[in-house]
Amino acid sequence: MVHIRPGLRGDHQQVRSFCENTFHWGDYIPEVYMDWVTSDQGRVLVAELGQAVVGLVHVDMPGATEAWLEGMRVHPDFRRRGLAALLTQAALAEARLLGAGVARLAITKENHASHQLAYRTGFGLLGELEEYAVSDREGEARPAVRDDLETMAHLARTKSWLPGRPVLVGAGWRWWEASHRGLEKLLDREMLWTNGRAWAVLDYLEFEDDEIVILSPTGDESAIVALVGGMLSQAGGGKSRARVVVSARQKVAPPHWEGPSEWEHIYERWLDEES
Ligand SMILES: CC(C)(COP(=O)(O)OP(=O)(O)OC[C@H]1O[C@@H](n2cnc3c(N)ncnc32)[C@H](O)[C@@H]1OP(=O)(O)O)[C@@H](O)C(=O)NCCC(=O)NCCS
What we know:
Number of helices: 7
Largest sheet: 12 strands, mixed
CATH architecture of the largest domain: 3-Layer(aba) Sandwich
Bound molecules: coenzyme A
Structural class: alpha+beta
Mean pLDDT: 95
Strand content: 25-35%
Low-confidence stretches: none
Oligomer: single chain
Radius of gyration: 19 Å
């Protein structure tokens, strides 16, 4: 009999034991698990079969009404028994308790099982993110200040790749709506840059030593190109490349940007009384 319950500190070793080799490069879960269970911003749920922990998922709340699901894992010996579907249902119920009206998650393109799982549990594809490598340093950019918020929120709505609502902003693998409040959160972390006509997030993710990561550039193409060049020269600290993540629907593709290559797909599910 499967039992879904909150994850505990004491589950760490069991979680580590079945997560160590999830992907060809290993897994990040063993490193973040203790932070997740001790944080009061989200919840870890685990699936227990007998006395053994055989699955987990983390529900985070990047916005007051927006949930982010991540870290879905099922022990390799217990897959295709409906555990991930059960964990998703429980995570959505938890998200509602935490005040969410919508839940989102991201899946890399080649993770076929997870795309199926997302559709199976009522999520719809929201956007396909792509990345470009940019080494051009021409352009202007400066850290955004509070007075920029109004203009940035306006651009988030009018230049949105999502019909009828603001773009999503990303930071540290999570995405949420670029509402005034959503942007303010990034401003407080000094992650927003602008040139008045476009804005973007300078993420603290580090894939390669010699590059910076820029997410959610928003504005017209020419303004974005100038902003990215400016960010590389101003914020890059001598780094030679920017990794820029855009939505495929934005159709921002200047000839001197190298790419696109696939980043990840974002899914969304609105939460109603049933979820
Ligand atoms: C993805 C994962 C969590 C699925 O866990 P699971 O417990 O086996 O999934 P479930 O049994 O609940 O499957 C629910 C549905 O998901 C889909 N699905 C799950 N595994 C699948 C697979 N290997 N191939 C195709 N579809 C799959 C199916 O639609 C399935 O419904 P069905 O069995 O009725 O056809 C598990 O394979 C895993 O831990 N993978 C490695 C980690 C990972 O990729 N996590 C997600 C990162 S975004």
